[in-house]
Amino acid sequence: MNMNLYGHNGQWLMVDCGVSFNEPLKPDDLHTAEVVSADPSFISAQKERLAGIVITHAHEDHVGALPFLWRRFQCPVYTTAFTAEVLRRKLVQVGLADEVPVIVVNENETQQIGVFSVSWLALTHSVPEPFAMTINTPAGSVFHTGDWKIDKQPIIGEGFSPSRFQALAKTGVKAMVCDSTNALRDGHSLSESECYEGLLQAIAPEKGRVVVGCFSSNVARLVALGRVAKETGRYLALIGRSLINMVGAAKATGYWPDDVPVIDSAHLGYLPREEVLAVVTGSQGEPRATLNRLAVDNCFDLSLDADDLVIFSAMMIPGNEAAIMRLVEQFKGRKIRTLQQQDTALTIHVSGHPCKDELSQLYTWVQPEIAVPCHGEAAHLEANGQVAKASQVPRQLIGRNGDLYQLAPQICVRRQLVKTSRIALAR
Q1: How far apart are CA 242 and CA 280, in angstroms?
Q2: Which of 27, 241, 267, 411 has the most CB atoms less than 10 A away?
Q3: How many other CB atoms are there within 10 angstroms of residue 367's CB atom?
Q4: What average pLDDT does the structure give for the chain?
Q5: Total number of domains constituting the chain
């Protein structure tokens, strides 16, 4: 549930405004809220100093809270075309369709947002148009990576280009605020193209229905499954509002290939078993999502029989293990087979985040004075800091939510300067 604030000369810039799902509001609380965001009280109390909000990409943990919280901020929102399309669809649902000024920016474009000069740099991730940015002020520049990986063969968009990041080193970057999600993993992340090959091999020999649970915002994975459907004589259908909305946004912005058809899920019941490929929501065991309804045979558009296959093409987010394994046991109780990444040598899921080798490569290209690890728990941040140190970054600042990182003129971390908490949002 990302919410980052950069401050200079009496003004603030917010980068990302996301949600998390089925989370407790307080540590060790046994009760969870369905949709959770960071408490924005610190900045909403001084919203006249908030120059703007920048959204890096269209994942829920980066954009999902904005429709619910924008009234507390009432400032312009800057993002790229695909994310803007996703955001506008969300704003319609909360009655803000014509109220929020959404400014669409392009790669390599620079926008002056109050005292901040912000430039966008394209990279690769698991959603269309993931962007890093440089935030320039008279006190120095910050390179904010957002979510990223080095994917040379993505399903959507161009491969990762080192040159634009090598060029940053020549301009002098004060601090690099960097994704730590996979900082505990050695090596290099796998490509979405490798995942396509793995899914093709997993689905091709199947004789029954195949259901794939994945994150709705991973449009590249959805396109890959559409191609797998064509190659295996199946029809692709989507079950779940978020999936349908995401593919609609992809079609509206030119990211959905014309040669990858999608059928109405209402037609699935009329197809022979061997022609069904359904992509559904609920890969994390969410109680109201489609996979849970399929497990208890309460899905209006599709029923599964013994020996059909359910593939989990998504990471198991820490904390969701019990819910996911309950789901798996429900399917097994009905003799419906399941396939998770740990069950097979085939690549049926790849991460959208950088492993240690990629982190080291980007630090070496950008050559910041300071590394500020973000995205992850304490162990991930520490591991990222160690990679930065080994990559010759002079300073590493590691903290936690509520810390204020002072980058200039003196470099320090002011611990727990801002009170932080979580709030529940109503859908």
Answers
A1: 9
A2: 411
A3: 18
A4: 95
A5: 2
